[in-house]
Amino acid sequence: xxxxxSHSSVAAGDDQLAHAATHEPxxxxxxxxxxxxxxxxxxxxxxxxxxxxxGIVSEETDGHVPLAYLVVMVAxxxxxxxxxxxxxxxxxxxxxxxxxxxxxxxxVGFLVGWVATLDYLLxxxxxxxxxxxxxxxxxxxxxxxxxxxxxxxxxxxLNLVGVKLAAKMNVLLVSIQLxxxxxxxxxxxxxxxxxSVPVTSLPFGSSDTAAVSIAAGAAILALSFLxxxxxSTLAEEAERPTRDIPRAIFxxxxxxxxxxxxxxxxxxxxxxxxxxxxxxxxxxxxxxxxIGGAAFQAVFVGGYMMAVLGCGITQQMSAARLLxxxxxxxxxxxxxxxxxxxxxxxxxMNVLLVALVALTAxxxxxxxxxxxxxxxxxxxxTFVNLSVVFTFFRFMQRRTAGAWFGFVxxxxxxxxINVALWVNLDTVSMIIGACWFALGLxxxxxxxxxxxxxxxxxxxxxxxxxxx
Length: 468
Hints:
Elements: H1 7-12, H2 14-21, H3 34-45, H4 54-61, H5 65-89, H6 96-103, H7 106-138, H8 144-160, H9 165-168, H10 170-194, H11 211-225, H12 241-270, H13 283-328, H14 334-337, H15 348-358, H16 366-395, H17 401-422, H18 427-447
Helix pairs in contact: 3-12, 4-11, 5-11, 5-12, 5-16, 5-17, 6-7, 6-16, 7-8, 7-13, 7-15, 7-16, 7-18, 8-13, 8-15, 10-12, 10-13, 11-16, 13-15, 16-17, 16-18
């Protein structure tokens, strides 16, 4: 295990990092400022994700989606606090896997990374499901499988030719999403005023609010916050990582959380009971038509599809790249996963494998897919919190009252909240997640000869770019 820098050396911060970078052969450049980090995090999360699960969660929580968002935002803020602690000790590229590996144990880190890998593999699938739902609202006569196949096909084709479309169009895609979302809120408020809809606090709770239902809804909505921690992987490219990465993480969570709560609040005021809608799963397109007519529904779905394609391309690219790095470093069989096309520089087999996984969208419901993805997310978040506690007991010498609070109490509360949300996932997702974990554990036991050898590295060189 690499030596952990002392608390005093961490305080020296970014100047030492910059100095060290001039004497090491690292190829990454420190060019990202705070505003770049915030934008990248928000772009990765996709603002229109707020519309994904509204109908399902509104039914689950009996009309309290904003409250469920508030609960999950609190959970994420605790985890964001732990990320801010860990990035000061490990200002290197990496995330939950890196922190668990360094602070707890390399084998534990591998299993955390392995479970988190499930998210990367399944995210393209949920994009395909959303494509079918939203396009089906506008073109109900076209079969669901057509939209799924088209979405997966387009994302796969663009990845196979090595096009970085999503990266180049990030600014445009996010801007369009924000404009569509703002217009949606304005139209919703206009309808609330014109129809004299009572503005109440009921979406945030009532006398019959069930804590179990809110927890179940929050467990599903965690999907909307996936990606807030993505900026932690940019620590080697930030100008001042120990200062700006923690700030960026908190800004991203607070901005996204406020946005999600605001949008769902006005939607919930208009439709406190979503069972009156024709399609609960496709509630958002239906509400868009209600507040702005067929024309706005078309604009809404069009803007959303741009987000779906942009995210789909990026997510398939990220998953294929992760599998490539794991294969090249021996964490997965090299013969299959480390192969790269000589002409395009694309790991073709990995791209096709991710596409096959995405096609399971034909057989999985939206809430089921969200739960399967959140299985790995909650485990990763839990171990980020626990990594802070292990860092305190293993490496810190100054144990003041403030240190006990910031490195033990707050992270433990964060871990408990994440575990509580994790156990509220549905049974099928828990079974699938457990099978994936068992597969990783078995592989680790064989690979390390019963934990006698070092765990495989899941990180991969941070400067690879198989798409250049």
